[in-house]
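Troubleshooting entry. The earlier prediction with 2-oxoglutaric acid gave an output that would not parse, so I re-checked the input for stray whitespace and re-submitted. Clean input:
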Amino acid sequence: MIDFALLTSAYPDQRAQMIQKVINHGVPESLMEAMVDACQRFFELPEEEKKEFQTRNLLDPIKCGTSFNVAIDKVRLWRDHLKVIAHPEFNSLYTPAGYGEVSLEFSKRTRAVATEILSGISESLGLEADYIAKAMNWDRGLQILAANYYPACPQPDLAIGIPPHTDHGLVTLLIQNDMCGLEVKHNDKWVLVNSAPGSFIVNYKSIWHRATVNNTATRISIAIPHGPALDTPTLPIPELLEKEGETAKYIGMTYEKFMELQASPAAYMVPCLDHLRVKDN
Ligand SMILES: O=C(O)CCC(=O)C(=O)O
Ligand SMILES: [Fe+2]
């Protein structure tokens, strides 16, 4: 658990944990609930009204649909999604009513939280607080409001919400309604992640995770990935390599290419970073 008030001092000890939760982050719980509610109302719109956003291009500003990677999914998926790019350009929906205002405020507040976490990570690595933000052109960085809708499923054991994957962003925040379902792989076992009301779940390492479904009630989660600017190559930090006397273990890649890789068949059930690992000779 990251208490935001203690971020810089408490952080180093907590880095070993597999996934973090953030409290005291300053985003009103009522705003988080309003955002979940607005997304729920979008998913419940008649199919006709959602049709215009059912596109398949990775970086379309607004898109919705069923499934994770439509081209390559092999298992029975039980999920609808809505992805809206909120930064560097803010995009929004006219329906359902209220989505625009709520998502504007929510995107600003969550971006501020992600920015603080990124500075905390920079400092915990012994770098200037704004080192990573500068290197990643954070001021032009991508932020997506990615809502997931998992209706109750009569046979949850035969389906999955989202198959195992790693996220593509630098800092992904996640909130959910009162249903759990996010699981992370830990010591070869899937472990359910609980979240306290009003907290964010944070993923900033390439954590292997999945979303399960249940037969009781609809689950809604909103993942908010924050990444570098699309044209920015992500590389191992030269100063840290030098300090540790290490050579780079990963090749560099622009964020846009990395996102394309994450959505491609090569990344299906394979952690994305595996593709970037420098091969031992
Ligand atoms: O629904 C969840 O808890 C997980 C969502 C997720 O992993 C994603 O959107 O990338
Ligand atoms: Fe994810």
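This one parsed fine. Confidence is low (pLDDT under 50) at residues 6-16.
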